[in-house]
User: Fold these one by one.
Assistant:
Number 1:
Amino acid sequence: MAGPSGVGPRANVTGVVTAALRRSFSSLAVPNYRRYFTGQVVSVSGNWMQMVAEAWLLLTLTGSGVAVGALTAAQFAPFLLFAAWGGVMADRIPKRRLLIFTQAAMAAPALFLFGVTAAGVVAPWMVFATAFARGSVNSIDNPARQSFVIEMVGADRVVNAVSLNSVVVQSSRILGPGIAGAVIALFGVAPCFAVNALTFAVMIGALRSMRSDELRPAPVKKHERGAVRAAVGYVARTPALAIPLAMMGLVGTLAFNFQTVLPLLAHFTFGGGADAYAVLLGAMGIGSIAGALANGARGRTGPRLLVASALGFGAFGLLAAAAPSFPLEVAALIPLGAASITFAAGVNSQLQLEVEPAMRGRVMALYSIVFLGSTPLGGPLTGWLSEAIDPRAGLILGGLAALTAGIGAWFAFARVHRGEHLARARGAGGGRPREGRVLGETVFARVRRWRELDPG
């Protein structure tokens, strides 16, 4: 039945969905970001092809699951070693120029592995060396890419653009391995490395075709001693940066270990094979894409979103750990994927909006360290728990870590807000405020005032 304006309920729903989707993709209206987005879709898919092909090649050469796990550590360990210096470079060198260099450099390991594999002389140490080399370049590339987003789209669209970047990663996680599987089955492993090398040319072309006059570059930082130490001190003095980074440090180390947990869950808990693993991975991917699109349509972040997404991450993680059957596990992983990507994108956006432009590269390097660099630490711990107890233990560990991060951040943000309230009261009242009443607030009073933490 049509409403007063003659428009039926179905048309209203369609209009709301269309408007939400338009908001989700609003950053694509920026020509420079549109070029970047296209290059990323191709390049990240190629990177996933390479990772799948490397793991398959190493498993063929060694027959060892431990070796495959060590390959992941070799890829992400460089973030602990070099990402901080990558952030310094991102602040000292124009980011587009730095990205063109790093994208070209990442093609070299892929071409090397293609050559030795096609020639039949590949050895396990070459696969490890290639992964470490790629990770080393990526530890410089990643902070530059993260901090370059706001220079393309501006502060008003940065939340949307970060969410779209998450869509790229999650879509490529499904697309890349699927293409890799088909290429390996038809032509062998070696062509995957060649294809990945070619994808970097697409990304370089996208970067070079950007219009410089439409970018909003941060001021280039001059050389100074102690640049990394200065960034750490700056974050420590800035609660709006320190609290989200601490949340990501805990959650990134103990909860973002799905590459370890899901295959073990599929095999040992539910007795499935590669097809079961693919279904679990697909469920996470669908939830992640949906969460990223919803976050992009929302277009804002803040303490309330960070706490809510961390608590949701923890709750759905525990729900997935308790799922008694495979279909219910698949169903639980969809909202878990949505909550996890909302949390990660929220932290990323919060950091970019709160940081001083001259510090953005270094602060995003710290984000890369606590998010990606924590994998070599949390992955083995999660794997050990999953093997010693049950794969569900890995999900329980991650769920408890996310809940702890959410609750801790709730109190931390409230404490910061209370301090700001006291400072304003001292400045406006000309005397000492009634601190006993403010400091003696109950948890229920904090809940009633929660909206003041994030008016947006």
Number 2:
Amino acid sequence: MNRTPLPLWVALASTAMGCAFGVPSYRPVVPHRGAAPGIEAEIVEVTHQNGLTVDLKVEGSAGIRLQRGLLVPAAASPCREGVRDSGLFLDGPGSSPFGAVTQPQWLRPVPITGSHRITLKFPEGASSSLLYQTPVVDLVILAERPELREQGTAEEASEERCVRVALSGKAPELQWSRPAPWTGITSLRFTYPSHAVGSVDNGWSLEFGLGRWFGPVRAKLEAGFGIGDCRGYCPPGPKGSGAGFLWFPLRASIDGYLVETTGFGIAAEIGVHQFSATRTKPDETARWETSRGPRAALRFDFLALPAPGWPRDARQGAFGLELSLGRWSSATAADEPALVWGFGFVNHTGF
């Protein structure tokens, strides 16, 4: 079979996801709190996905109502500037794909007497750029003044207050974390044995996997499918079909970073791999060839580069070029073992 090139767009589509900053939720390293007379607020969780979602825990006294949320640079005047929330959810997950669906609160101000969970959504674009300007979240509050209740409407008998809560920045107390013990893996790999084993030769594969961090080391399991050349015993199948092999790689490995800096890392990996390859024989039955052996790889990764205060280590996501060296020993043929080298594009996404 002639080697089949894979279009570049497939490589990009299968590997580009991990470099994007922010799919999951983040927790503050230390509490991010703010207060004004009659109300206390604390940011407990932030999600970066289709904009910015901020979850707050608030404690309000009687007559406290929330008018709106603002995302602003810390240098801005309190509750006067910035990006207004595009959605406010009361006591619900808001943006979460799990749990009950909560409708946004469009009738403002919203009473928040007592303990509540407030979710504010801010639009993509403006919110992303503000993350680089030491952002804060301002809550515009209306507080009832009983002494003025008889002199006019509820709005006229209220005064405006502002609660400012720091969101993120370079300072240690503004940092956010995400343990991200699990990793989703997508890879496009090209494999070249020193000689055919069981008539299976060069090929490519698209693979998917799952990994989990244990301290500085990650255990991974990957599987996929691809196409391999046939060299040697390669009789055509029915109607000339079956010129090459359809193969199914399976890999188990551990990896860790030898070097990890801002935006770049070098990872080493060791493990085992197995290739189960099949093609159609002239009698229309399936022919299977299986090879397995050890494998080592070195990977040069680009790491996510989020705004100051947000985690930028390899657990969050990486996209890199992998160079590998392994060995094939056939489980189905008497061929000599072969050295196998390869390269690939590998994407890791923490969740």
Number 3:
Amino acid sequence: MGKLLEKEKTIDSKRASEKGPLLDLLIHDLTGPLSVVSTSAASLSQRESRYGPLTDQQKRLIERILRNVRKAQTLLNEMIEISRSEEGLFQKGFFPIEEILKESLLDVLEIHDPQMAEKLSGAKSLGESRPLLETHGIFVTITGKYCQSPFCHDHKKVQQILRNLFSNAMKYRRSRVEVCISGEIDLCISFEDDGVGIPVEEQEAIFDRFVRLKEKRNTGIPGLGLGLTGVKALLEAMRGDITVASREGTGARFMIRIPPLPLQ
């Protein structure tokens, strides 16, 4: 038994050592082509004097290309942030939580509802856009210290966590998502949807890679089963945690806690 465990540890260690170079290669090989596609599509859209006028249908198709390229670039950046967090690399800084939340909402809504995202981007603050959000079934509450005071951490990693959890809630909701931010020392955030819920026996597995829930919850919903895995990896590196409260048929509530980085 001891030799078997030692062999398993050796295999796990080998996989871990191989992960870094493979990830570096993937990032390197994908960055260039995505940049070319993004630049080319943007040129077609913005330089009609050179390439000729576009029909409305052609414009919509180019906008769709650009949205999906941005999504792919976002996923690539998320891989980079997870890799950096595993190495203990953080870009420490102070930032308003409301601002990071708004950016996260915009990122997700650009995929789910581009017209709403455009309206939200014109708002000066999240408070100003609250009526618009509520019209679309998105309710945001901010209380506690970070309602006024900035939070100290790596804003890219916090934004990535918020973006993934909001995207998850938007995928599975029926009509409503509630986001609640609180905390006096640690930052506490919850995302709650009114979807079909998660059976108790499946709640531990949802944080594993490539795991997706049963078909009755997944039908027609895209995804690879990596978002929550990345969120958990980031939170563990940030000394935080994530929990889920749900039952089948009652929606799901994901709660996260992030300690601030020390000032020194």
